[in-house]
């Protein structure tokens, strides 16, 4: 019985090999041409965008409500829908470094616009914030405190040819002068809205 199974298995293998051999000889008769094409890239449908979103929320101290104040920052970028829109290495070669770079001047312009969008005096409130950041440094308040310190301390970076009022506001805060009375047209300080962390 075992011999019969071995014979059937051997016969099946031989038939399979003959079929493979006949099919490859038929393929040799065909004229095979190698097709090639350029590499393809995945693009996006028309009007596609990608967004980065950052929200900083500060809870308000009220036991009866669960309310927080939030600042939202959003950046939206158009995605390419056509191969001709791609520029490798994805930066504009014609733009100079100063045009591509995010610096303190552009950060202050954004902060001033944000204050104005809330109906406040943009420049005046920015100067008060710089003064308050110098008056009470935020160095030991984690990553968020470090970021605020870097942004609102003009002397923390190389000279960027900023208007002298920014340095004057920082010096006013360092010398202990009252920032609220120095900038009376700004009723609210940005740093007043952040509750201090206590152990």
In words, what does this structure look like?
The longest helix is centred in the N-terminal third of the chain and has 28 residues, at 2-29. This protein folds into two domains: 43-100, no CATH class; 102-199, no CATH class. The chain contains seven helices and two strands, in the order H-E-E-H-H-H-H-H-H. It is an alpha+beta fold and 199 residues long.
Could you say which overall geometry the principal axes of the C-alpha atoms support? elongated
Helix content: 40-55%
Q: Residue-averaged pLDDT, rounded?
A: 75
Element-level helix/strand string = HEEHHHHHH
Structure at a glance:
This protein is of the alpha+beta class. It has seven helices and two strands.
Descriptive labels:
single chain, 199 residues, alpha+beta
Helix and strand layout, with pairings?
Blueprint: H1 2-29, E1 49-59, E2 68-78, H2 97-100, H3 104-117, H4 122-135, H5 142-151, H6 164-174, H7 179-182
Antiparallel strand pairs: 1-2
Helix pairs in contact: 3-4, 4-6
């Amino acid at each position: 019985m075992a011999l019969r199974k071995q014979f059937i298995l051997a016969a099946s293998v031989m038939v399979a090999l003959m079929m493979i051999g006949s099919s490859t000889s038929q393929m040799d008769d065909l004229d095979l041409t190698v097709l090639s094409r350029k590499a393809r890239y995945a693009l996006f449908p028309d009007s596609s965008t990608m967004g980065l979103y950052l929200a900083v929320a500060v809870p308000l101290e009220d036991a009866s409500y669960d309310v927080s104040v939030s600042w939202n920052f959003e950046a939206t970028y158009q995605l390419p829908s056509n191969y001709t829109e791609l520029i490798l290495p994805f930066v504009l070669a014609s733009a100079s470094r100063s045009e591509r770079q995010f610096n303190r001047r552009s950060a202050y312009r954004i902060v001033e616009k944000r204050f104005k969008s809330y109906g406040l005096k943009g420049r005046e409130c920015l100067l008060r914030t710089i003064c308050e950041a110098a008056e009470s440094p935020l160095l030991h308040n984690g990553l968020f405190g470090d970021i605020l310190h870097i942004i609102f301390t003009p002397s923390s970076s190389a000279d960027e040819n900023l208007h002298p009022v920014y340095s004057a506001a920082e010096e006013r805060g360092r010398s202990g002068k009252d920032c609220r009375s120095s900038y009376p047209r700004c009723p609210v300080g940005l740093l007043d809205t952040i509750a201090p962390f206590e152990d």
